[in-house]
Amino acid sequence: MIFKAVGDGRPYPEHGLSSRDWAKIPPRQIRLDQLVSTKRELDLQSLLAKDSTFYGDLFPHVVQWKSELYLEDGLHRALRAALQQRLVLHARVLDLDAVDVNLNGRPGD
Fold first, then answer.
1. Rounded CA gap, 66 and 37, in Å?
2. What CA dihedral angle connects 64, 71, 79 and 51, to 10 degrees?
3. Is residue 101 scored above 80 in pLDDT?
4. In this structure, is the dihedral angle defined by the CA atoms of residues 4, 88, 100 and 38, taken in order, positive or negative?
5. Is the pTM of this model over 0.70?
6. Which segments carry the region annotation Disordered (predicted)?
7. What is the DSSP string of 18-48?
8. CA 45 to chain centroid
9. Alpha-carbon distance 67 to 69, whole Å?
10. 105 - beta bridge partners?
């Protein structure tokens, strides 16, 4: 098994982070078998494309919520890592367990 589980949607509260906000989070290593995907389907053409991250973040986005790690963005990159027989990947992790989430869904200051 590649991931811990395959989910369908995001069970955590909306965090409202922009691409710029995500870029401020330093990447860290995450084991693929600890991740729960938030997407059930993928586009095989995107998986096989050599330039699939050309316009986006090089690192997948993971949200920690209630001690689970949810792969929010980067499913194709994570699967590519698994196909290359890697057990870990570098990802940006937003730890919602460690921050207050206000009523607007954005992490509190």
1. 15
2. -120
3. no
4. negative
5. yes
6. 1-20
7. -HHHHHTSPEEEEEGGGEEES-S---HHHHH
8. 20
9. 7
10. none
